[in-house]
Amino acid sequence: MAVTAAQVAAILGRGDDSETVALAGAHLPLVTVFVKAYVRGNGFTADEPNADLSAVITTATARLVVNPEQVKRYQTADYAETPAVLDGFTLPELAVLHLYRRRTA
């Protein structure tokens, strides 16, 4: 089940924003490679991830799309924001990924 840029944009509530769709399309191949490498190809059939791994790809790509510069903190006067960054997989993502990765010898 291939993830599309439109699906990522829709998760972010920006399904009708062509810039967001384009940015998601640019980041999807990168995140897909991260996931495929982490699970060592398990869960992929003909380079297509299964539904579980598609969910991980979607959420990780969404984090990258909302903060493409990977800025850790914005601050202007007394306003500050700490956006999400893609500096690894989240615990729920890892729970799914570990189902497909052999972790013992």
Automatic annotation (TrEMBL):
Source superkingdom = Bacteria
- State the name under which the record lists this protein: Phage gp6-like head-tail connector protein
Q: Which organism is it from?
A: Oerskovia merdavium
Question: Which taxonomic lineage does the organism of this UniProt entry have?
Answer: Bacteria, Bacillati, Actinomycetota, Actinomycetes, Micrococcales
